[in-house]
Amino acid sequence: MGFHFRALGMGGTRGRIYIKHADLFKYAADAQDKHWLAERQHMRATGGKMAYLLIEEDIKELASSDEYKDCPELRLEELKPFAVPPWMLEKMQKAMEAQRSEKDV
């Protein structure tokens, strides 16, 4: 986790991507999700820490945009994509629908 910051050349500025690209979908992992992620070594097993999952294609699209494509710190090899289980995917889809509904209001 956190690889998307480094991939876009934002190594030391966690959170900046969420402010700079507020329309980017991010899924806030709950305790069950974090447990699954930690078991598979996608994140450290630290309690209380916020963990966001982003969609790989969104990061790659950002990386190819005019804003990032010529960035010397761009390191897409830092991305560590993985597939989530169906039960987590369902939660992510619900969160995406809720996020879309908020934008429509």
Written account of the structure:
This protein is mainly α and 105 residues long. The protein has one domain (3-104). It is 45% helix and 6% strand. The protein is built from five helices and two strands. It has helices spanning 3-7, 16-20, 31-39, 56-64, 86-104; strands at residues 26-28, 52-54. A two-stranded antiparallel ribbon has the order 1-2. The radius of gyration is 14 Å and the shape is globular. The model has no long low-confidence stretch (mean pLDDT 83). Residues 6-92 form the TdIF1 C-terminal domain. It comes from Astyanax mexicanus.
The coarse overall form would be: globular
Report low-confidence residues grouped into runs of 5 or more. Answer: none
**Percent range for helical residues?**
40-55%
Tally of separate helices: 5
Q: State Rg.
A: 14 Å
The major sheet is characterized as: 2 strands, antiparallel
Count the E strands: 2
Content-based structural category: mainly alpha
Query: Into which percentage range does the β-strand content fall?
Result: 5-15%
The residue-averaged pLDDT reads 83
How far apart the termini lie comes to 31 Å
Total count of domains: 1
Please provide the ordered H/E string of secondary-structure elements.
HHEHEHH
Strand order of the largest sheet: 1-2
Pfam family, one: TdIF1_2nd
Protein name: Ubiquitin-conjugating enzyme E2C
GO molecular function: DNA binding; nucleosome binding
InterPro entries: TdIF1, TdIF1_C
